[in-house]
Design brief:
Blueprint (H helix, E strand, L loop, with lengths): L10 H10 L6 H7 L4 H5 L3 H5 L8 H17 L1 H4 L6 E2 L2 E2 L9 E5 L4 E5 L12 H26 L14 H5 L6 H22 L3 H25 L19 H13 L18 H15 L6 H20 L5 H23 L1 H6 L2 H5 L1 H7 L18 H6 L1
Helix pairs in contact: 1-2, 7-10, 7-11, 9-10, 9-12, 9-13, 10-12, 12-13, 12-14
Length: 394
Amino acid sequence: MYSTSASTWTCSDVEQWLIHNGFQQYSKILCDKHKIDGKALLLLNEDDLKTPPLQLHILGDIKRLYLLISTLQTNQTSEYDSIDTFKTNGKPSSGDFIHLRRRNIRSKKNVQYQDSTDINKPKFEREIHKTVISFVYAFVVALLTAFVMVVVHDRVPDMTKYPPLPDIFLDSVPMIPWAFQACEMCGLILASIFSITIFIHKHRFIVLRRCFALLGTVFLLRCVTMFVTSLSVPGIHLQCAGKVYGDIWTKLNRAFEISFGLGMSLTGVHTCGDYMFSGHTVCLTMSNMFITEYTPRRFTLLHTLTWVLNLFGIFFILAGHEHYSIDVVIAFYISSRLFLYYHTLANNKTLHHADRRAQVWFPMFYYFESNVNGIVPNEYEWPFKWPRSIKCYF
């Protein structure tokens, strides 16, 4: 019997095979009652053994019998390829699907096995047009933020009349001249790590779409808070004078300078006035959150590094006396909470598919995430065809 292919076995052959391997107690139910022949045996999986109509009751026997069957399936790869899903009337039969535990995928020199459950895995479409829309949204908000900063600068309170407000941290820690530049260096390191993560992430367009949407939303809120309240500057080292940008064209030109300089002192951009809340803290925190979320969980050293850079960057902002402590606290809280809330909704199908309130209260979120089914897996690929060695590694 064992010299022939398992796919040609009869019910009697399967019965002898079961008896030979110590499962004689199941030979009657499998072969006599349910007519399991060789082809049917090769299509059995663990769920078939545990659920009706077979419904075996001893867990140890189920595991051992399935291990024996899966070993037989692996050894019969040449025959297993020829068995496909049977269909009746154009629809899958045998309980909608006959699950093939392993499907043989041959190449020139090796054989790879792909779990048949891949057909049930959620699909993640790139939807590049949505990513472009998200980028435009973030870019427009960046321009608006820069323009509001220019407008607020003209309304900066007179330092002679309105000295810096009391602040426990700023009053306790002397100003460090190079601290703000150190903060921006921390931000550049985080941005570089995040860029590499995006570059090799298989679902980079979904991640980018979420990044632009979140940054745009946080900075749009920052525009409102900056405009409605102007606080006195937090440090006497900031020499500020209002009414320096007279006409609208001068304001627009300055806004473009701030935008394209990314609001960083390292690029030569120097702004004045306390902006509720800290934009540098937002960028540091968002970069940290995205790196932590979209890199493997086992990269604990990397995650520790990003948190250290995030926290040291916040410290350097305060040490440079560029923001009040409340600006930094609010920025960190809003950025981290919005990131967590967004991903909680996005990762829960019920919340953003079945609950229509998501469409009403979060229309942009619903539009961007409508075709994302489940948690985005951390899978990686080399985006180019060359060099082949790197592409093969991924």
